[in-house]
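Page 47, continued from p. 46.
Same chain as before, 329 aa.
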Amino acid sequence: MANINGNAGLAWRGTDKGPAERSALNVGASTGLPAWLLLPEHVWFRIFWWASAEGNDLAWLSQTAALVCTQWNYLVRKVVYPRLVRLNLTSIEHQWKRCRLRLRASEENAEVIQETDKHIAGFLERLFRDCSCARCLVATDCYRLVRDSVVQHIHVYPPRLVELHFSNCALLSDVGVGFMLQRIAAHQAGEQTWIHTLTFFAEKLTSRAAAEIARRCPFLQHLELQYARLDDESLRELGKLRFLRQLKVRGSEAVTDAGITYLAHLEFLDIALCPQITDRALFTLAHSVHLRRLLLAHQRYNVWCTGKWTESGLSALREAGVDLHFIDV
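Result:
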C-alpha cells in the first residue's frame, strides 16, 4: 500500500493540478490519507465498474475489493452496490465451489450443511439490502446458492426487481419458488409482484409452481418453465395472465392439445419436446390472431419425444402467417 501511495503522489505532483486536485491533496495532507482515496465517488464507481466486468463479477466486489480496507468496503457497499441494476450471482457460485473443495468432508454433517445454508442466506440478504436499485437478478448454474434450503432463509430482496433468471438451478423446487415470490411481493405490492420476466430451467418445478407464479405475478409478460413437470391445468392457470405474451414450456411431457386452447393470446410459444402435442393443437394455434412465432422440435430422429403433429398442421400454421422455428434434438 505504501508503494501505491507513493506512486500516486508522484503522479499528482508531476501534473498541472486544477482546483479539485489541489483540494484533494490539501485534505489528504491534513488528514494523513493518500490522495487516491479522496477521489469523487462517481470516479470510484467507474473504477469498480470496469474492474468487476461491468458489475457482473460480484464475487470480486464482495470479497477482494471489500477486504482491502475500510474505505474500499464503504465504497463498494455505499457507492457501487446501490447503483447496480443487474445482479449476477454466477461468480459468487463459482467462488463458493472453489472454497467448498476444502470443506467437502465436513459438509457430510447435516448440522454443518444447515449452518452453511444460513450463512449463505445471510450473505445474500446483505447483498440484496445494499443493492436496493437492482431490477434484474441472474443465477446460472447456481446449484448451491439457489436451492430450497437457502431460499427459505432469505427475507430481503431488492424492492425494484422486475426480472428473474434462474437457469440450471436444479435444486430449486416449488417450495423455493413459493418462498421467493412471497417475499419479493412483500417488498412490492403486498400480495403480488411487479415482475414482468421470469425464466426457470428446473426439472423439480411442477403445476404448483405455475399456480404460484400466476397468483403472484399478474403483470408477467415473458415466462420460461423449461423441462418442468407441467400439465394442462398449469397452462390453464398461466392462461389467466392477461399480459403474458411469450411462453416456453419446452420438455413438458404431460401437456396435451387441451392445454394449448388456453394460450390463444400469446405472441410466441415454445412447445418443443412436448410428446403429446398433435395436429389438433397446431390447428388451434393457427386460428389465433396474436401468435407470431412457434418453436417446435425436428422429428427427423425421434418422433415420440418431439410430438405427434404432421405436415398438415404445419401447413395450417404457415397459411396463417405464423413464423415456424425448429430445434435439433
